[in-house]
Specification:
The chain has 494 residues and is an alpha/beta fold. The protein is globular and about 70 Å long.
């Protein structure tokens, strides 16, 4: 049973309740367990906290031994953004692949199986799905994390994902409100702006969030973006007009509002995490996500003190903080009573989805490879949400099917020539990720195809550039299963 330490006053307990901090390591540190005893109600998990499903289950059991109703949250979108399988690549394709298939029942089944695996490990809140409409093809942070560029498609798959995930007993956290798809800036690094007339938003950005609310999403995550048509001064996370006026009052949403990571530069670089957290709660947010970068007791203490001080000085109404804490506890009660997945596991549903998402151009004249090729991965810098620790590509899967497959990673203006030299006489498989966003990558492909027109091309990002190569495979994401689906076609294994 949960035991709140004696001497923890209501204000301090509420301030701790609204925090969702991270921590280092694969076991809970003493300071975190102590904070749970003082009123902390949520914990955020990242790739650094996970070594295996068994270890994760032991970690969540350790947390629940201290507080039985703790919310254990994770950023597990499947596809390119995976924490559960960060060391191997995901067993599930991401949103863009599911949108390419456009089978809402498949999306629901994928989300249900992902939720089932999370619940099995003791995770009960998932910071997913992304409901962003990827209307800017140059978007550096959303891309394949979006179901697509069509608001209706994004809406129906967002609703299916929410339904599937929550049917497994894991609360969905639909993000990034009011929509991060029309941005050319990564909010991890700076503050993006969406400069569109207010009339555009209801028919584009907001349609998927309406669908998520209709599907009963238990949480919504705010975006660190400036939308001048809604609020010319404050980014969405800190805007009362957006969180309370639009999300609560206009859209009628009554669940938990969670901020995106407060240490992201879009907020931390302008307001600081303490000031930003106070403004977020005042604006209508209920939970402060922090811990992707700052993961220590000092961060928890600083944010707790900033909130309690803001209440004591009259900057933050005490009833607003109490209401936020109430919503956190209400979600914890839902997770405790939510249905668990009692049906059969669909362990291969992710691979089946990845195979269906694959788009092949040039197959008519293609003969599957029988000799080991050379895989030239034209590798861009990974965005922070994806991270650079998760393997991607087709080399590992091709090596399994064609032993002796070689591989190398190339970038920059000389990437094409370097790949040619490394490949020697072997058949080249060029793997790209968002060719349309990287001029050096397109130039490298030009070089490879001019010298070796029999080169095969695998696009593992958004397939915006025209297909080219002797065979072109668009996987709509870089999850491990997407790489396997492509490798099967290249080697004629299916």
């Amino acid at each position: 049973m949960t035991t709140i330490a004696s001497g923890t006053d209501t204000l301090t307990r509420d301030a701790l309740t609204v925090l969702q901090p991270g921590f280092p390591g694969t076991t809970a540190p003493d300071w975190l367990l102590r904070r749970l005893g003082e009123g902390l109600a949520s914990v955020g998990l990242f790739g650094r906290n996970i070594a295996s499903p068994d270890q994760l289950a032991a970690l969540t059991a350790q947390l629940r031994a201290e507080r039985d109703d703790v919310l254990v949250a994770i950023d597990e979108e499947g596809g390119d953004v995976t924490r559960l399988e960060g060391r191997t690549g995901s067993s599930f394709p991401g949103n863009h692949a599911l949108g390419a298939v456009d089978d809402v029942d498949l999306t629901r089944r994928v989300a249900h199986e992902l939720g089932r695996r999370l619940a099995e490990c003791g995770v009960n809140l998932n910071w997913a799905p992304s409901a962003d409409v990827n209307s800017d093809p140059a978007n550096p942070v959303i891309g394949v994390r979006s179901f697509g560029a069509d608001p209706g498609l994004v809406a129906r798959h967002t609703a299916a994902y929410v339904t599937g995930l929550q049917s497994a007993g894991v609360a969905a956290c639909t993000k990034h409100f009011p929509g991060h798809g029309d941005t050319a800036v990564d909010s991890h690094h700076a503050l993006p702006r969406i400069d569109v007339p207010a009339a555009v938003l209801p028919d584009r950005e907001l349609i998927p969030f309406r669908a998520a609310i209709g599907a009963g999403t238990r949480a919504v995550m705010s975006a660190h973006i400036l939308v001048p048509a809604l609020d010319p001064v404050r980014p969405a996370t800190l805007s009362r007009r957006i969180l309370t006026g639009l999300l609560r009052e206009e859209l009628g949403y009554d669940g938990l509002i969670v901020t995106d990571g407060m240490e992201m530069r879009a907020v931390a670089g302008t307001y600081g995490i303490e000031r930003g957290s106070v403004l977020a709660i005042a604006a209508g947010a209920d939970a402060i996500c922090v811990g992707g970068g700052l993961a220590d007791d000092e961060t928890v203490r600083r944010l707790r003190d900033a909130l309690t001080t803001a209440v004591r000085t009259g900057e933050l109404p005490e009833e607003r903080l109490a209401d936020a804490a109430r919503r956190v506890r209400a979600l914890a009660r839902w997770t405790a009573s939510a249905p668990t997945a009692a049906d059969e596991a669909e362990r291969d549903v992710g691979l089946a989805a990845a195979r269906r998402a694959l788009r092949v151009t040039g197959a008519d004249g293609f003969t599957p490879l029988t000799e080991a090729p050379y895989v030239a991965a034209l590798t861009p810098v990974a965005n922070i949400a994806v991270g650079d620790e998760t393997p991607w590509g087709v080399a590992a899967e091709l090596a399994r099917l064609l032993p002796g497959t070689g591989t190398g990673s190339f970038a920059g203006e000389h990437a094409g020539r370097a790949a040619l030299a490394a490949a020697g006489e072997r058949r080249i498989v060029a793997v790209v990720r968002d060719e349309h966003r990287h001029p050096w990558m397109a130039a490298a492909l030009d070089t490879l195809l001019a010298a070796r027109p029999d080169t095969l091309v695998v696009e593992m990002g958004v397939p915006q550039a025209a297909p080219r190569g002797a065979l072109h495979l668009a996987t709509h994401g870089a999850a491990r299963v997407c790489g396997r689906a492509a490798a099967e076609v290249i080697a004629g294994a299916r």
